[in-house]
Amino acid sequence: MTTADDHWPATLERVTNALDFELTNQQIGAKTTQPSFLMRAIAPSDISALPALVATAVHASLEVDRLIALPGPGGYDPKARSVRQALVDALNKEPPGSGQRSPFVLGYKTAYRLELARVMWKAISDAPARRLQELARARAF
């Protein structure tokens, strides 16, 4: 039996696949020969042509990424945090200014995108439209 919300897991995977991840200028830890930087998710530059709820899902995914990245015991979702940290570590090991990403980074990005979609579905599954709007609204402030 299908419901009106059966499309959301696939939609969320498409939304997270549209995201990219980059290191920020904010360095963490001691200054060493191999510095480590924080990572942030970035949305496509133009999401105005997307349907309203899909655009809302893009903003909500950025908020969920921010929640996963928050420091502290337990965290938003420990499994997602560990997958995210593996991606951060892989990005930090890339040579600075390299034009192409290694297959490892691409693999870690894919794993994190799937994990982000899973966490988003877990967060919104009881009322997708309303929960997406709440998450996107939290990001606006």
The largest beta-sheet arranges its strands as 1-2
Global structural class: mainly alpha
* CA distance, first residue to last residue: 39 Å
Could you give the order of the helices and strands?
HEEHHHH
Oligomer: single chain
The averaged pLDDT comes out at: 86
* Proportion of strand residues: 5-15%
Tell me, briefly, the overall form: globular
Q: How much helix is in the residues?
A: 55-70%
Largest sheet: 2 strands, antiparallel
Low-confidence stretches: none
Topology, number of strands: 2
Radius of gyration: 16 Å
Total number of helices:
5
How does this structure look, described?
The protein is mainly alpha-helical and 141 residues long. Helices cover 57% and strands 11% of the residues. It has five helices and two strands, in the order αββαααα. The chain has helices spanning 8-18, 52-69, 78-93, 103-124, 128-140, and strands at 20-28, 36-42. Strands 1-2 form a two-stranded antiparallel sheet. Strand 1 and strand 2 (36-42) form a beta hairpin. Helix 2 (52-69) packs across helix 5. The longest helix has 22 residues, at 103-124. It is globular. The N and C termini lie far apart (39 Å). The mean pLDDT is 86.
Summarize the structure.
This protein is mainly alpha-helical and 141 residues long. It is built from five helices and two strands.
Protein topology:
Layout: H1 8-18, E1 20-28, E2 36-42, H2 52-69, H3 78-93, H4 103-124, H5 128-140
Antiparallel strand pairs: 1-2
Keywords:
globular, mainly alpha, 141 residues, two-stranded antiparallel ribbon, single chain
